[in-house]
Amino acid sequence: MVAPTTLLSLLGLATAVSAQTNTTRLRYMPFGDSITEIVCWRSKLWNKLQSTEWATVDFVGSGKTENNCRDTKYDRDNEGHSGFLAINIANQNQLVGWLQRNPADVITMHLGTNDIVQQNKAVTDIIAAFTKLVKQMRDSNPKMKIVVAQIIPLGLGNFNAKVQELNRAIPTWAAQQNTTQSPIWVVDQFTGFSGSSDNRDGVHPNDGGDNKMANIWYPAVVRALEAAKADKLALSGRQRSSQIEAERQ
Ligand SMILES: *[C@@H]1O[C@H](CO)[C@@H](O)[C@H](O)[C@H]1NC(C)=O
Ligand SMILES: *[C@@H]1O[C@H](CO)[C@@H](O)[C@H](O)[C@H]1NC(C)=O
């Protein structure tokens, strides 16, 4: 028979562990350019998560800008930077500091539009920047769960051939970069999105475009959160075993 004191301390331990797990809110960083910053898909994504076990997920980032979403409830924190190029963010190591200030378990990345529109950068150079950014994400958190977008089309100029060239390169690149502890999931924000009728200004999503984007992000972000939660549970399980082991001695 187990001594009552042992039972009690085990019960106390179990309570402590579940309390600890429940207070460990998962952290999600929406990372990108203006298509992450001055938009409302973050509001829509947050609202979709409210009826799930992910209602308490903490959106993180250094900014709170959006596109007048008329939503006072959602967590506006994000790491969207209007006008920024993936190549410049990578070259200037900006993500390193952003993740230091706001560490994350899950990150979404929608980048490349400004590289193409402003400076007609080569797809190979944009992809090289993505590689550096993924490395910086993993330096910050070796178990970072990463969701990368094939980016939305534009409704102005003649940029969509280049956008599609970038989008075609992303799945192969992501598969090469993929690891078990830090998976990358690619989501297709291009297909089914109209550069003219789903954008308000040819570049940024209108309400319909925000809905489409949130609906595409949602299942991938949920899968990433599930993977991040599994890591935390495995971690608290290991902590519990070593604690029980320590109490036996
Ligand atoms: C968190 O708390 C809820 C209820 O308070 C409980 O049902 C759930 O099992 C807890 N989660 C974990 C992982 O312990
Ligand atoms: C990366 O691996 C995960 C499984 O860990 C898989 O679900 C995902 O599709 C892979 N990503 C790519 C781009 O192959």
UniProtKB/TrEMBL annotation:
Please give the Pfam families that the UniProt record associates with this protein: Lipase_GDSL_2
Q: Where is the SGNH hydrolase-type esterase domain positioned along the sequence?
A: 31-209
Keyword vocabulary terms for this entry: Hydrolase, Signal
Task: Please name the CDD domains in this protein's record.
Answer: XynB_like (cd01833)
Q: Which GO terms describe its molecular function?
A: phosphatidylcholine lysophospholipase activity
Q: Which residues form the signal peptide?
A: 1-19
Point out the coiled-coil segments of this chain: none
- Output the Gene3D superfamilies linked to this UniProt entry: SGNH hydrolase (3.40.50.1110)
Protein name as it appears in the record? SGNH hydrolase-type esterase domain-containing protein
Task: Specify the species.
Answer: Rhypophila decipiens
